[in-house]
Amino acid sequence: VQLQASGGGLVQAGDSLTLSCAASGLSLGNYAMGWFRRAPGKERQFVAAITRSGGTGYGNSVKGRFTIFRDNAKNTLYLQMDSLKPEDTAVYYCAADGRTLGYSIVQREYDYWGQGTLVTVSS
Question: What is the pLDDT of residue 93?
Answer without folding.
Answer: 98
